[in-house]
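Tokens for Protein ARV. Go.
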Amino acid sequence: KSCQKPVDKYIEYDPVIILINAILCKAQAYRHVLFNTKINIHGKLCIFCLLCEAYLRWLQLQDSSQNTDPDDLIRYAKEWDFYRMFGIASFEQASFLVGIFITLWWMRPEMLKTKSDFILLLKALLLSSYGKLLLIPAVIWEHDYTPLCLAFIKVFVLISNSQAIRVTLNLNRMLPWLAIFFGLILENSVVCLFQKMGWDV
């Protein structure tokens, strides 16, 4: 019923094949993961992705990159700037999700009638942000193309979010992208607000 097929073919597939198909953003793989598996790592994945993003931003701050002594790692972990970057990344993520929910609720209120509809979509969006984990190798193997890699990671995450919305609410391709666009507008508004407050983002 959920995947609109007589049988979910991914039930018989190896998890590695499912992961590869999810990375390729195939709608059927997303349906399988969202509806026919019991994955409860949404919250942990979200926190871990936010930590990766906060670490990347913290690393890009001028004062954090001056001292690269490995013995200072414990002191670094206690720095206020890292926690500030985590808070900013959390606010941006929340505003992005709120923008998506407001747009979808405004355009198709019948799709998000119950609390369970909201929770399912939230879980789908959090799971589909797994591409942010690629920030770790981008930071570890830092090179001249790092900004380009980060841009590709952002695009990949947005494509994954679009597929998650499309699969969860059974929509066409246009409405998810519209919701993501308004989510990005709200997220960038939060970024501008932080910059006006004089915070490095």
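Residues 2 and 35 are 7 Å apart (CA to CA).
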